[in-house]
Amino acid sequence: MEIEEFKLKDGRIVNIKRLTIEDYDADNGYEYVHDWLNKVNKFLGYEFEKKDIERDKEEWYKYLSNESEIAIGALYNKKIIGVSSLKTNFRIKKQRHIGSWGIAIHPEFHNQGLGTKLLTIIEGLAKVMGLKKLIADYYDGNKSAEILYLKKMNYEVEGRQKHVILLKDGTYTDRVLIGKIIDDSLKEK
User: Fold this and answer.
1) What is the pLDDT of residues 96-118, one digit of tens each?
2) Rounded to a whole number, what is the distance in angstroms from the first to the last CA of the chain?
């Protein structure tokens, strides 16, 4: 994917591209991303703790090296400030038509239209790859996710897993399962 410029609501310009290991190696890029992910991890499925940075980096680099997984990122001043990833199920015959995605955006870039842009790109790539449905999840209480996924991007709630997420404050919350059919041949007539 070539670099595409995108203008945020506040006028800042970000570059959007398919991310590579080189993007994370440049100017301590992985460490920068790991640091801001730690700031937003209340609603992420993974804890980004400083003590685990080398292990986390190794796992993410393996992800980036896998051809069935794609990471699209937004860069501002050559720093990664947003990531959306797409994982396919091409190895599992009965689920080849489904992809799953995740998204995280630096807190200084929230509510700027970047989440909508990144997910629109992910959906477009999924269609080109022949996927028919996309799935994801978010934690109950994440109002930004709920607005973006359900209202702006038209995902549907497909289920709820009760009290499966332990938050840092010691309380539990639900995981909300969402999905969207992106191929008209699957839509009910």
Assistant:
1) 999 999 999 999 999 999 999 99
2) 34
